[in-house]
Amino acid sequence: MSYFFQLVVSGIVTGSIYALSALGFVLIYKSSRVLNIAHGQIIAGGAFITYALTVWLKIPIYLSFFISMIITFFLAMSIERIFLRRLIGEPIISIIMVTIGLMSILDGIIYLTPFGTYNLSFPDFFPKRPIIFWGISISWTRMAGVIITFILISLFSWFFKKSPIGVSMRAVSDDQMASMSVGISVPKVFGLAWAMAGMSAAAAGSIIGNITGLNFETLHAFGIAVFPVVILGGLDSIIGAVVAGIIMGLIQQFAAGYLDGNWGLNGTADVLPYIILLIILLFKPHGLFGTHEIERV
Amino acid sequence: MKFKAPFIIILSTILSLFLLAGCGQKQESGQEQGQRSAAKAHTYKIGLSLAITGSTSDAGNPYSKGVEDYINYANEMKFLGDDKIKCMIRDDQYKNDVTKRNFEDFLSAGIIFYLNYSTGSTLALKRDFEEERIPVIPASFHAGNLIDSNYIFLPIVSYSSQAIGLSEYIVNNHKGVNPKTAMFIHPSAFGRGPVEDVKKAVAAGLTMDIIEVVEHGRDLDNTAMLKRLISKKVQYVICNTVQSPVATLLNDAQRLGISADEFGQEDKITFFGVHYTGGNDLIALAGTSAENFFWTTSYRLTNEESAGASAQLEIAQKYGRDSKTANSHNYTNGIMAAQIAVETIRRAKAKGLEINRSNLYNELTAMNGFNAYYPLTTVGPVTFSSQDHAGVDTQIIYQVQNGVFRSICNPFESTYTGKLK
C-alpha cells in the first residue's frame, strides 16, 4: 500500500508544481483572453534571476526568491507595456502572434547570457535528506514547492474574488468596452495581469530549477508542458489549474508506476494525460472549471 | 687635416645609402617571396552546422568553440604551412531543415570537409553526403549513422559500443548471478540507438538481464519509475540521454535512498551513462547526487593530468575561453573533430595531392596501422579504414568521486562490439 500512497503523494506534489507553472497562463487569460506563448521563457528567466542573485550577488536564496519575483513582476509589466499595450482591442490572434514573437526575442536574449547554454544548479538550501512519513518520501524542495504553490494560489484566488482590483480584472475579462465605460483602466489591468503572471512564473521557475537543475531548454519546456493542465482546468480558472495540475500529476505517476514496464508499455506517463485530456474535453469543452459563455443574439 | 670631417660625413652618407639600398632590396625580395608564397597558398573551406542555441546547445556551444579554436590554432601554428583552413560555423538550433540549408550553403561555398552535429540531421542528410561524396564527421556517435553510408566517420566509439562496454564492466565486476539492468534513454533515434545492440550483445553471450528500457519524458519526478525498477530487483541503470534528465533521475534516487554508495551495492541502483550524459555539466546539475555515477567516453578529461589536457587548456587560454568551456568534454569533442579534419588535409598535402573531397576520403580511410592518428586528447588512436568508420575504438570509464570524475580503469575495447561486427 505504501507504493500506492507514494505515487499519490508524488502525483500531488508534481501536480502542484504544474499548477503553479500554469498559473501565469490563467492569470493573463483570465483578464485579457490572451494565451501567452512566451510563458516558458518567463519561467526560465525567473529561475535565472534567482540564481544570479543567489550565486553571483551572494544573497540568501529565500531572499533571492522574493527579489526575483519582484523583478519579474516589473519585467513582465514592462513587456506588456512595450509590446502588447498598443494591441488592446486588436484581434486576439494578432496578440497571440506577438507573444510567439516575444518568445523568440526572449530566447535570443537568454542565449546571449551564459544561462542560455550553461547547466547550473542552485546551492543546496534544503537538507538533502528527504522527509519520510509512513514509508513515503518527499524532498524538502518539493514540499516547499507545494507550500509556495498553495500560498500563491490562495492569495490570487482571494485577490480575484475579494479585492477591488481583482474584481476589475474579472470585469475586463468579461467585457472590455463595458469595463471602460464604468471607468476601469483596461491598460492598467492588463499590465497588472502580466506582472502577476511574471511573479508566479518566477516562483515556478525557481522551484523547478531547484528540482531539475538550471537548464534553459528544460525550464522553458515547462511553459508548453503545462498546456494540457491549463486547457483541462478551463483556461480562466485558478482552482481549475490546481485541480487539473493534480489530476495530471496523479495520472503521470500512476501510469509510470502501474502501466510502464508492463505488457510491453512504455512512455504512457507522457501520453496518457493527453488521452484523458481529449476524453474530458469531449464532454466538457470548456475544461473542468472554465467559464461556459453563452452569447445571446 | 681640415678635410677630414666633411670626408667622414660624405663617406658615412654614402655607406648609409648603400646600407639602405641593401635593406630595401632585401625587403623587396622578402615581399616578393611573400607574394610568391601567397600566390601559392590555398584556403581550404570546411563547414560546421550545429546547435549553438536551442535544444542541446549546452553541448553544441562548447563544441563549436572547440572547432573554432583548433582551426585558428592550426592556422596560427602553420600546421598546413602557408595554407589556411576557413571553417564556416553556423547555428542550426537543432533543426534538421536548417542544417540542410546550412549544408547546401556550405556546398555552394565550396567546402571539402563537413562537420555535422545531431543524430537526426546526420540520418536525414545521409543521402546528401553520399551524393556529394564529402567526408563528414558528426558529433553524434549513433552507430546507425554508419549504415548504408560511405562518407560518415564517427570520431570515437559509437553509443552502442559505449553502452556495451559499460555492460561488460557491469558483468565483469558484478557479484552473484546475472546482473539485472535497465536502460534509461532519450525518446529519439539518438537515445534508442544502443538498445538493440546491447540486446544483441546479451544474445551473443553477455551474461546480463535487461529488465526494462525506459524512455523518459519531461519528468519532474521519477519516483514511480525508480520504485518499479527496485521492485524488479534492478541493480544497474545505463543511461543514454542528455545531462538534465539524468540529473533529475539521480536526485530522485538519492532522495528515495536507492543510490548505490559503491558499485553493485545490494538493493540499490548503480547508475551508468554514455558520452552525452556525463561530464562537468552533470555534476553542475545534480550536485552531490552525481556521486558514484559511472560514465564512459573516449576522451581524456582536464581534471586528470595528461599531455592532451594541458594542450586543451593551453588552446582555451590562448583564445580567452572561460574555465567552464575549457574544461568541458564537449570542447574536447569539438577540438577532436577539427583535429581529424586538419590532420587529413595535412596528410594529403604532405603527399602533394590535390586537396579535394575524394583525396581526403582516401586519406581518412588510410588512417590505420602505422598511419593511425594519435591525438593527445583521446584514450586511443584514431583508426579508420574503408570498412571501419569509427575512429577511436577504445573507451575509458570515469566515476564521480568527491565531486570530480576520476578514471577507474585503463582504456579498453569492448569485446562484444568486436564479436557483433
Distance between the termini of chain A: 56 Å
Counting DSSP E segments of at least 2 residues, the number of strands of chain A comes to 2
> Within the CATH hierarchy, at the fold level, what is the topology of the largest domain in chain B?
Rossmann fold
What's the CATH H-level homologous superfamily of the largest domain in chain B? Answer: Response regulator
Distance separating the two termini of chain B: 98 Å
Strand residues, percent of chain A: under 5%
Strand content of chain B: 15-25%
How much is the radius of gyration of chain A in Å?
19 Å
Question: Greatest contact pair?
Answer: A-B, 48 and 46 residues
Question: Ranges of chain A with pLDDT <50 over ≥5 residues?
Answer: none
| Count of DSSP-assigned helices of chain A | 12
CATH hierarchy: architecture of the largest domain in chain B: 3-Layer(aba) Sandwich
Classification by helices and strands of chain A: mainly alpha
Low-confidence stretches of chain B: 18-28
- Give the strand tally of chain B: 13
CATH topology of chain A: ABC transporter involved in vitamin B12 uptake, BtuC
In the CATH hierarchy, what is the class of chain A?
Mainly Alpha
Order of helix and strand elements from N to C terminus of chain A? HHHHEEHHHHHHHH
Q: Which shape of chain B, going by the Cα principal axes? A: globular
Shape of chain A: globular
What is the number of domains of chain B? 2
